[in-house]
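Notes taken during the Thursday session

The instructor put the following on the board and asked us to keep it in front of us for the whole hour. The protein is Phytocyanin domain-containing protein. We were told not to look anything up and to reason only from what is written here. First, the residues (160 in total):
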Amino acid sequence: MAFIKPSPLSPLLTLLLFILSYLLIPAHSVEFAVGDKDGWHIPSSKADDFYNEWASKQRFQDSVLVVNDTEYRKCHSVQPIFFSNNGDTEYTLDRPGLFYFISGVSGHCERGQKMIIKVLEPHSEPSPPAGGSGASKAGMIGASLIVSQIVIALLGFFFS
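Then, after some discussion, the predicted structure tokens were revealed:
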């Protein structure tokens, strides 16, 4: 019976295949254009809730500030949590709760260019039924990912 002698590069190839297998894990992000087709502007009407109504329907080229509740109500911030005026701002909503955004241009917030975004708690999976299998979809995906990585590593070891 003949044995396949592994190449000296087998461990390196195995590691490379293992690392590349992580590229198969999907990443999810979403970009929104604030105000949809109307964009980030001063509302034409006295509708103070223009952006809040827009944001409630969503699940964001001027400056934007992330502020606290008090600064949001006053439309003024001396030390904002975040400031950007590059025209291509991205802000990560990294926790559940309320995020307050106002325009950094003098007078714009007072005229309605502000909004609140509420980030909901992550949806939790329902408890498995009593006496059921109890395997969640996420657990099965994780297990299949581990198995596929092991198979790829073994293939790299034996066929390199």
